[in-house]
Amino acid sequence: MQAAVATKVTDAIQQQVDVEALLNQVFAGVITDRPRLQALVGPITGATNALIETQVREFLASDDFADLWVRVSTKAQQTLVRVLKGEESGAVSIQRATNSFSICPRSSTR
C-alpha cells in the first residue's frame, strides 16, 4: 500500500511542479550563452524527480507518518460516527433531504 500511495503522491507533486520547465526558466540566460548546458537539464530533472520520490517514500515509511496516519484516521472515524449519529456540529454534515454530504471549513459551520 505504501508503494501505491508513494506513487500517487510523487505523481501529484510532479504534476504540480514541472522541474524541467523551471530549470529551463532559471537557466535561460546561461543556456543562451552556453547552449551545451541545455544537455544538463534532462539529467538534473531526472535526479530532482528521483529525489522527490525518495523523500516521499522515506516519509511514508517513517514513524512520523505512522503517527500522523493514526491521528488522521482516528479523527476521520470520530467525525463519521458523529455524522452517522446525526450530530450536526462540526466541519462535516449530512443533508438528509438531498442524500448528500458536504465538507466545509470550520469557519463556515453553523
For the terminal residues, how far apart are their CA atoms? 37 Å
Categorize the overall geometry.
elongated
Major beta sheet summary: 2 strands, antiparallel
Strand content: 5-15%
Tell me the strand order in the biggest sheet: 1-2
SSE string, helix = H, strand = E? HHHHHEE
Number of helices: 5
Count structural domains.
2
Overall mean pLDDT stands at: 85
In short:
By secondary structure, this protein is mostly helical. It is built from 5 helices and 2 strands, in the order αααααββ.
Entry keywords:
2 domains, mainly alpha, 110 residues, 2 strands
Detailed description of the structure:
The protein has five helices and two strands. It is mainly α. It folds into two domains: 61 residues, no CATH class; 48 residues, no CATH class. It has a two-stranded antiparallel ribbon. Helix 2 packs across helix 4. The longest helix has 23 residues.
Question: Which helices and strands occur, and which strands form pairs?
Answer:
Layout lengths: L1 H15 L2 H8 L1 H6 L4 H23 L2 H22 L7 E4 L4 E4 L7
Antiparallel strand pairs: 1-2
Helix pairs in contact: 1-4, 2-4
